[in-house]
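Q: For a teaching session next week I want to show students how multiple molecules come together into a single three-dimensional assembly. I've collected the sequence lines for a complex. Could you give me the predicted structure tokens for the whole thing so I can convert them for display?
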Amino acid sequence: MALLEVDGLRVGYGFPVLMGISFEVEEGETAVLFGLNGAGKTTTVTTIAGLLKPDAGSIRFNGQDIAGKRPPELVSAGVALVPEGRRVFPNLTVANNLRLGAWSRRGNHKEVEASRALVFDYFPRLAERVDQAAGTLSGGEQQMLAIGRALMSKPKLLLVDEASLGLSPSLAKVVFQVMAQINEDGVTVLIVEQNVGVLPYADRALIMEKGTLIYSGVGEEIREANLRESYLGVHE
Amino acid sequence: MATTIDRPVTEPEPEPEQGRQGDRPFRPSPLGWLARAVLALALAWLVFVFPLSQEGFEVQRFTTAVIYGIIGLSLNVLLGYVGQISLGHQAFVGIGAFTSAYMVSVQNQPFWVAVAAAAAVGGLQALVLGGASLRITGLYFALVTLSYGLVAEQNIFQVEELTGGGQGQAAPKPAGFETDWRYYYLCLAFLALVLWVDWRLMRSKGGRALLALQENPRVAATFGVNVRMLTLFAFVVSGVFAGLGGALLAHNDTFVSPEVWSFNLALVFVIMTVVGGLRNRAGVVIGSAFFALLPYLIDQIGFIEDAVAAIPAPRELTAELAPLVLGPLLLILTLVRAPGGIGQQIRPIQRWLGGHRFDLHDHGPKEVKVADVRA
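A: Of course. Below is the structure for the complete assembly, covering every listed component.
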């Protein structure tokens, strides 16, 4: 059974944005959602995360219908979102940003500490900056913090919106590598990206255009040059 | 499954560190400590001794300044921590004042019960008003509170049973604190209590979440923070502080009159909080006290009186009206020059007193943005 099943999802902001998209993400996969600006990628993940209500269609997570549920319920169920543009809380310290990520588990001190240790294991640099205001971190560090903060809720499904936005290619590669490691450790990952550098780490690729899904593929086929040239406009 | 890598992962090209202060250890010399002790003693004298050297009426003004500190902290919870503006805060303070006066004068309850009732009524008002209106934010929420203030002014403050109608309500000082200076110290103790509660609140998980949702409620929601409930909680805390401030004001003046609680007062409350410096307790208390003491300062310092008199106005500019004239000017100055308000300006002194090197340009992290005070 797929961990995430999206079926006929329609979402709009007074005008239609998602025109009834359907896809699945299997448990343990890293799926990547590609598309140009305005394709509807962010709308898709923010709807899955409960920040937008769908007009029609269903979203099933772990066998449960979660369409229209509010973020607190979804975080408790195991869905976490790393929002576009990092969106760390600049005036709070790294430690407090991470504590906020564990808001849904705030009564469980030991587990929260274990999650924090795991985040520092993934991102040792954050441990060095633990008492520093998040706004004073570099762009790469802020992205690490945003991902670490989302991990603090101990998610089953991690939604990452534009993980490499504004990062140098080498730093983007590091972020992709860490997400691969997070995936190795048992978290299913859905990444929204425009950077094809993420493809080597992906098990599934989804490509969107103007609110519809125009391609869905798994395994080795998504690493073939044909996909890059036909759908992503990358000529090698 | 995706590519495996070995932990730990480090960046191949560390980006430059931004905004970090030099961490060189600094220890003041014995002379430095002595200078700090002298300044600390001078400030303590200003707060604890100087007001008592004044006439009874003037001591009341200083007590009002302390109570305004509580009211400023009340607005700071809402405006500074949550980012919502209340233009009807005079209603919360006024209803607190009348509640306490009513409990003491009509119900013959002890002062402590009356003050607790006023604080509870303040919280209850916020709960009801916030529960009904916190789905809306920003300007629209400000309009709701403005309307509530006007409704209180035109209706609630005219309820004869509660307010004595046009006659007002007596509010004697509590037993053991009948003298002005004793009551001054009692209000200082209440201010210390409010400061402690505020400090504890902001060190709690809820406090951190409040700051987070002030910065970005949408992102805070993605972690499961119940934005509406937390905002309502902050509004209730703000209402409790306001009710307490109102009760203390009532017993300071020993009488509460309905016409005091006008929209003008709500404006002064907002201005003094912003000028004091959002999210900075010391700044808010100093800013609030300054506005409360403005009439006193104008009376005492000749050139300020002359300067105020020189401001062209359609009617005579009395010391009581001065906060409404100087307030907006100070507000503009704050918005343009120092959005962190007085709190931002006194930070070098605060840090120096705490044993750090004096740095005139150390205004701390740019916590308060102009957008905060244009909420």
